[in-house]
């Protein structure tokens, strides 16, 4: 990776982490308050969500006007538009985990700098889950391939 791309990635990561900290997304209590629609709902993170949607929409609008990105040979945009069981199941598991812990991967990784044991435990469990997913997926794919 070239130096300009590394610097752009670093700047993007720092900006993202700063935004997560500033918005309260690294505080599980704030996130759980936002997700608690039936209780003491805290609507403040709706502004974070609206800001994220606006930035994403702006990015897609800019992409439509550009032949290629400034620091890459091509745009990397997901091509799959199908809603299948795997996507819906993954989204459901993500939502359940987010609702139980008040953390999702981005804020948890950024939150490691806080040195809180519960965030470190969440990240460790997340990494174990990712490893288990990779191992089981590889075995399932190998079994399906061997059965043909």
Automatic annotation (TrEMBL):
Transmembrane segments: 45-62, 83-103, 109-132
Organism of this sequence: Methylobacterium dankookense
Keywords of the record: Membrane, Transmembrane, Transmembrane helix
Top-level taxonomic group: Bacteria
Name used for this protein in its record: Sulphur transport domain-containing protein
Any matching Pfam family: DUF6691
InterPro entries hit by this protein: DUF6691 (IPR046513)
């Amino acid at each position: 990776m070239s130096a300009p791309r590394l610097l752009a990635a670093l700047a993007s990561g720092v900006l993202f982490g700063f935004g997560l900290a500033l918005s309260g997304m690294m505080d599980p209590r704030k996130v759980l308050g936002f997700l608690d629609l039936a209780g003491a709902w805290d609507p403040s993170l709706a502004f974070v969500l609206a800001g994220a949607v606006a930035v994403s929409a702006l990015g897609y609008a800019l992409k439509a006007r550009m032949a290629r990105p400034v620091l890459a040979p091509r745009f990397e945009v997901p091509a799959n538009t199908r809603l299948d069981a795997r996507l819906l199941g993954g989204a459901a598991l993500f939502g359940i985990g987010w609702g139980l812990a008040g953390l999702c991967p981005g804020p948890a990784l950024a939150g490691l700098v806080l040195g809180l044991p519960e965030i470190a435990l969440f990240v460790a469990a997340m990494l174990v889950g990712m490893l288990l997913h990779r191992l089981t997926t590889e075995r399932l794919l190998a079994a399906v391939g061997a059965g043909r």
